[in-house]
Specification:
alpha+beta; 3 strands
Length: 102
């Protein structure tokens, strides 16, 4: 058994946070996460994960394309965006439990 602590967030809060800090008005968290109503998703945000996992040529190109499209192109970018927010000191490292209910 493992005990874990989560930072809870509504999907609207997550969407607005990402739209605001990356200037991606067309981003839709529900589409990107392929989320269902009345569900939860866990996203792990970590500044060090940004450096280890996402900071390579392939992912940087995907991230640039997403920014240039203002969020229209959304290839499962939410995890990457959360790690970038942690890297930039906007959010703290941790496990985020996203409440999805509309």
């Amino acid at each position: 058994m493992k005990k874990e602590t989560y930072i809870t967030m509504d999907y609207h809060e997550l969407e607005e946070l990402i739209k605001k800090h990356f200037d991606v008005p067309k981003y839709e968290v529900l589409c990107d996460l392929e989320a269902s109503n009345d569900s939860y998703q866990v996203i792990y945000a970590s500044a060090s994960e940004w450096d280890k996992e996402w900071n390579d040529e392939y992912y940087m190109e995907k991230f640039r394309e997403w920014l240039e499209s203002k969020g229209r192109k959304s290839p499962r970018i939410t995890n990457m965006a959360m790690c970038k927010l942690a890297k930039n000191g906007i959010i703290e490292d941790g496990a985020y439990l996203i409440n999805i209910c509309w």
